[in-house]
Write a structure and sequence with these properties.
Elements (H helix, E strand, L loop, with lengths): L1 E5 L4 H13 L8 H5 L3 H12 L6 E2 L1 H10 L2 E7 L20 H8 L2 H5 L3 E8 L3
C-alpha cells in the first residue's frame, strides 16, 4: 500500500504553495480544509505540512502501477478512483485505464481535489 501525491492532482495546492510568498501563513484563508480547523495549533500544523513543505515528491497512478508491474506486484485497488464499497479493500480488481486523458481526469476528480491530490494504490507481491 503506497500513498502519494498525484502529479496533476496537486495543481491547486501547488498554486497555493506559490501564493505563500505573498500571504505567508494567512494562506489558510484560501484553503477550505484549513478554514474547517478551529484549533490554531492544528491549523498551523496543516498549513506547514501542505504549503511550506521543502520537498514533495509527485507521481501519477500510472507511474506507480508501472512500478508494480516491474516488481511483480498485483494491482488490488486505487483510492479514490477504483474503490468500490461492496468489494473488500484488498480484493483484486481490474486496473483502471491509465491513458493520458484518464490520468488527467483522475487528477481533477472531486474527491481527489478534496484530498489535496493524495491517492493510495494497493498491491500484493505475486506468489512464485
Amino acid at each position: 500500500m503506497i500513498g502519494l501525491y498525484h502529479k496533476h492532482g496537486r495543481f491547486f495546492t501547488r498554486v497555493k504553495q506559490k501564493l505563500t510568498k505573498v500571504f505567508g501563513t494567512k494562506i489558510y484563508y484560501l484553503d477550505r480544509a484549513s478554514l474547517r480547523i478551529k484549533d490554531t495549533e492544528k491549523r498551523n500544523s496543516w498549513i506547514t505540512d501542505q504549503f511550506f513543505n521543502p520537498h514533495e515528491s509527485l507521481h501519477t497512478p500510472k507511474e506507480v502501477y508501472d512500478w508494480f508491474v516491474e516488481d511483480d506486484v498485483d494491482f488490488l485497488n486505487l483510492l479514490p478512483h477504483s474503490d468500490e464499497k461492496n468489494i473488500p479493500l484488498f480484493q483484486e480488481r481490474k486496473p483502471p485505464s491509465f491513458s493520458p486523458l484518464q490520468e488527467i481526469l483522475m487528477a481533477f476528480n472531486r474527491t481527489q481535489i478534496q484530498e489535496g491530490g493524495f491517492f493510495v494504490i494497493v498491491g500484493r507481491k505475486k506468489k512464485n
